[in-house]
Amino acid sequence: MVSTRCKLVVKDALKKMNLHFIVVELGEIDVMEDLSLAQQEELKKELLVSGLELMDDKRAVLIEKIKNIIVEMIHYSDELPKVNYSDYISEKLQRDYTYLSNIFSEVKGITIQQFIIIHKIERAKELLLYDELNLTEISYKLNYSSVAHLSNQFKKVTGLSPSHFKQLKDKRRNPIEEIGNSIL
């Protein structure tokens, strides 16, 4: 789950099945009842209708947690953490970053750092389209060391400079759920 809409879909599915949830967070569900195999299958089917997947593979769950931390950090918080992203993710998951990084790269085909960059550029696109902040303010908000650094990464990812992107009539952005799902 990488959005509030996803959380609502999951809550609705659980309510339909008369299951009582303790936690429905991005990438995590905790229900009061012990689910039978039949209930697990029913929940899987119910979630698939909405394009969501129930995961019980520990590696897949860990990768979802990493993705959710990154999405929440970049798209839903007002300020990015002032510590290194690697320290932040490691601390949030209480795991060694090298371990997390190796699993993520092995399964996703890109590094955590590449995934973060893709999301930061998508967030920059969003902020450019809102036209409330200038490029200097956007680079500061997204913890770039300089406008030039943001501009260089923006061009590497999109093929366009930020100013050229802003001038485009077809200002296409990618849904958060789809960012980083294909190899660069």
Q: What are its keywords?
A:
184 residues, mainly alpha, Arc Repressor Mutant, subunit A, 2 domains, two-stranded antiparallel sheet, 9 helices, 60% helix, 5% strand, elongated
Q: Can you offer a commentary on this structure?
A:
The model has no long low-confidence stretch (mean pLDDT 85). This protein has helices at residues 4-16, 37-49, 58-76, 85-93, 97-108, 112-130, 135-141, 147-158, 162-167, and strands spanning 21-25, 28-31. Helix 3 packs across helix 5 (97-108) and helix 6 (112-130) packs across helix 8 (147-158). It has two domains: 4-54, no CATH class; 59-178, Homeodomain-like (Arc Repressor Mutant, subunit A, Orthogonal Bundle), CATH 1.10.10.60. The protein contains nine helices and two strands, in the order αββαααααααα. With 184 residues, the chain is mostly helical. The chain is elongated. Strands 1-2 form a two-stranded antiparallel ribbon.
Structure in a nutshell:
The protein is mostly helical.
Mind sketching the topology for me?
Layout: H1 4-16, E1 21-25, E2 28-31, H2 37-49, H3 58-76, H4 85-93, H5 97-108, H6 112-130, H7 135-141, H8 147-158, H9 162-167
Antiparallel strand pairs: 1-2
Helix pairs in contact: 3-5, 3-6, 6-8
